[in-house]
Automatic annotation (TrEMBL):
SUPFAM superfamilies: Nucleotidyltransferase. It comes from Streptomyces lutosisoli. InterPro entries: GrpB/CoaE (IPR007344), NT_sf (IPR043519). It holds the Pfam family GrpB. This is GrpB family protein.
């Protein structure tokens, strides 16, 4: 939930499942309520990267650097 929004936190809830070590590859699945602001935010985020593919390598580098300093995915989900 964005800081200062005053919105109901339930509207920003999501479920997350992880699959690791599978022959088909690792999966991080994020599930959001249809029509929620959280769903819209995720879709806008995806669409922005599709429209600006040149920004993807910098975002990947940022996420990898973050993963190196955060103790576990419970502290900051990847």
């Amino acid at each position: 939930m964005p800081a200062g929004s005053g919105d109901d936190p339930a509207r920003w809830a999501k479920r997350m499942w992880l699959r690791r070590g599978h022959a088909g590859g690792d999966v991080d699945l994020h599930v959001r309520r249809v029509g929620s602001p959280n769903e819209r935010l995720a879709l806008l985020f995806r669409d922005w990267f599709r429209a600006h593919p040149e920004a993807v390598p910098a975002y990947v580098a940022f996420k990898r650097a973050l993963a190196d300093v955060v103790p576990d995915t419970g502290t900051y989900p990847m």
